[in-house]
């Protein structure tokens, strides 16, 4: 058999020798490759794979690595034959679409779209492995969504086109991850590059003696005209793109992922780790950012090409799965409860030297869509926690839902239109579920719910990844009760007659943008603003300066310029603002998280908040952790860094 | 005329164009070169130089640069002719040694050794310039010291041998300093690399968007067996030797300069800035460090070659003189009052964006040897202050002197020997001045004062640089009353009969090492330990674990192995320890410095102290600056960083 193409350094040599000793000769090993965080065994005897699955699992556990088995290229059936075999092997109720079976010759993978992708995998991956044994192709199941995501299709077909490069890329990353190091790390430090004492442009650099990893790399969209405030401090010398080991993205909001394409434009060719939903949603968000900027004639320092490069170098990870991202850093992502695919990042550093939990944005209570954020970890020495609502309390989710249903009910009763401006990614899907359930439970009459804007594309992504949603929602979807495909939803695409839609009374309209800064929502508002029977309901944050904020604060006249003419609009509809739908933990939840997290950290670093939120939160937890019943044996260090401060986590203080 | 050899970038082009416009044609300019921080005008008409001195001074002021005029090589007299001319021109009472006139053809300098080097310079540099005009050689006066420094001679002859390389080096540095930058700096941050929450291995990295500068780079000699604690964190990625603009050394103690040679071993070829006395004393200290390590069979990761490389790349600066060290950083050194040549560093960054004062080690009261540290600066936003005695008060200098004189007097009266262990660089010269004055003033009888060890070499350096000592001492030396050449001092060199010396009773012996860890002091102690009439006087800090500390703490028996035999020594002599001779500010002086500094900083960073000293000092000043009468309009931020923490000085907090 052949060893990896290049000369092995010591670390990989040891691993390979260990593997050679353990792998049953019957498999007839062709080669061993390090591809990204995975070690891939290419075997000639594909039929033997299933027999030795447990053996290989045991080996993987022993060497604490992700081990994957593939048939060597010579041991694969020709695609047409393989396709026939697959259609035989896969259970009928998976509902495979025969026209969407696609072969990736470089990676030896076959992508199979099915209505029930889980059936392709089978319990304990058993069917997946049967397909591999019988055809030599490794099946990658995909969900045939009832709502088609254009973005996902584009991403997948691009990845397929570039699969040769991608294999090279993965092998390069694999080498880097498993490079030799001396494991006598003596420090771990984090540097605030953005999103400290502020919200927007989140970015944290984690450095050890061996490695450098970025946690998030966001843009402050609100400050986009001021490069000094819009982008994180990535021209700091500590970030040299050629020596960066990994970018880790918690979720798809632009304040966390928006600047990653710029890094690739600067020449970064290393991996970016995120969940699959985050990859898809990020692509949607960033593409929209670029397109809006172009439409408005604003400069943005990267384009769609850089976004594609980012996607090409993205390595998806799943919740609760341990992944090597550097010789001395293991990454695990946990559910953050914030938006679809959002993650709390856990870094295990230097064979136990230090463990970091970075919450990203998180919600420490369950919602319709998502389970509550995880708060238990194998180890934690440092907690980096978001503080958006460090100074704000919100009403409960139940109260918020009740308030929404009440307003909608009253508006329907008087035959008005309910307009709910929504963000593309965030609360939109949540509100959809609430409204649908309210109709099902007959709390409100069955009216049409019109949905227009980017939110539809995002809903499609949700239906592709039920496994990232709350257990109850996921189970409902598996049972075939997908709330997003409810008959009550009317998806508006292309140039429709909005004036006709507002004539369908009573009805509900959900449209972007969430703060009335543009998009169809503004158009709908113009059409119903003067109607006293209708209602405008804000369910999200309205930033200073936006039309949404002005109306929320009491402005009752809008001046618009439409086709050259000045139009003054009286606002006679009811205006409501409902708090409690936020995807962020409120003050009470934040403090509770610090008290509940297991085990207890000895450093707590506050980020993602305005100074008032940060300092209020710091004061609260500083008091809380001193309570003998708090569970904190020793008082942790609390840090409130500013941008470009670094904190040495391993210093004794 | 020729422009600098390489293609000029914009910044230097602008400077050159400005100069070309302003320089009188009569000078007949041959070329303009950027040599280190200086701009050198090479002129063909050397006779015209004196006439235009004021013009050139005005130009220098206008462009805010150091401008130096030299005759072009073609316009210089042949060395023999020049020598004759020099002996004619220089006032007779300078007492020039004709055999020590040395020509450096590459730099166009002539080194002239004289008893009164000031006479070669003349008031307002006038004689210096006459020599230049008449011979074409730029005179560099040197003091013919009554005590010869071997180290200084070695340094000077090495520099001469390598003067061609040095010219290339200076031009390379000149290019780098005047490189093009966009002056829109938006941050200044400092990183603690060593000497924070501890004493030893002082090192601070200052970073701007354009530049990187190191302040000090010391070794923790006490931890020399543990590389993780002995050396600063210079393998941090932020320090890339090829992108470092400058190393700035405050003074010659090993905890501030000891690791600079290692940087050159790592490949650094940029400049190190320090005062001339610091250069000479550092060479002595580092050479001793290397030799002792070799003698004791200990590993030290650099050698004499690296020390020479450091000296070769050292650019001397004088107190109160502004020097460009990076495109956006100007350095000024001020008297620190700690040891000869010690400096407080002032950095003026980014055309006024930020100003840093770093005290290094400093004494905020005057001593026999040195004036009190400077506390007034053009601007200060950040003060980085040493905290060695943040938790300790010391008696006054007068009280300490009185105590010393009393003990010596009593010992002499009973015909004993006074043994004073001293550090090579530090209090030795101070004690010498005190004892000499006491004899002159007849406070004690005129006994012999034997001096042995490295202290003698250091005393020689002191007499070379009277301009770095206190005004009163300097004036005395100019008047010919050099206390260091007093007849009472008997300098012991080579293998002398120490038993004979202790027979000269009564007498005083000053010898290294200061903590009785080795050196002649230990030998002398053995000889007089059992003698009840004699006295042992500690005048400096005795570190944990040293023989000095044990005796100070009450141990009255020493077990020695001499030539294979175990020898038990009873200590019967009187043991005294006098505080108040320290070169560090004590607690009261530290607090007073924070209150007196002008203008008032808005950030105060504490370093160079054990945690207890740091926290005590932080508490004291945090209270002091809140007093309305403190002069602080707003309460400054007080930082107590650990190693590898960074502080963004320009963040709004
Ligand atoms: Zn978010
Ligand atoms: Zn966020
Ligand atoms: Zn010192
Ligand atoms: Zn020191
Ligand atoms: Zn000191």
UniProtKB/TrEMBL annotation, chains A, B:
This is Transcription termination factor FttA. Keywords: DNA-binding, Endonuclease, Exonuclease, Hydrolase, Metal-binding, Nuclease, RNA-binding, Transcription, Transcription regulation, Transcription termination, Zinc. Its cofactor is Zn(2+). CDD domains: KH-II_CPSF_arch_rpt1, TTHA0252-CPSF-like_MBL-fold. Zn(2+) 1 binds at residues 251, 253, 338, 361. Residues 428-551 form the Beta-Casp domain. Pfam families: Beta-Casp (PF10996), KH_TffA (PF17214), Lactamase_B_6 (PF16661), RMMBL (PF07521). It comes from Thermogladius calderae (strain DSM 22663 / VKM B-2946 / 1633). It is an enzyme of class 3 (hydrolase). Residues 200-412 form the Metallo-beta-lactamase domain. Its EC number is 3.1.-.-. Residues 9-76 are annotated as: KHa. Belongs to the metallo-beta-lactamase superfamily. RNA-metabolizing metallo-beta-lactamase-like family. FttA subfamily. GO terms for molecular function: DNA binding; RNA binding; RNA endonuclease activity; RNA exonuclease activity; zinc ion binding. The keyword Transcription regulation applies. NCBIfam families: arCOG00543 (TIGR03675). Zn(2+) 2 binds at residues 255-256, 361, 608. GO terms for biological process: DNA-templated transcription termination. Binds 2 Zn(2+) ions, which are required for nuclease activity. The gene is fttA. Terminates transcription on the whole genome. Termination is linked to FttA-mediated RNA cleavage and does not require NTP hydrolysis. Cleaves endonucleolytically at the RNA exit channel of RNA polymerase (RNAP); the 5'-3' exonuclease activity of this protein degrades the nascent RNA released from RNAP. Homodimer. Interacts with RNA polymerase (RNAP), interacts with the Spt4-Spt5 complex.
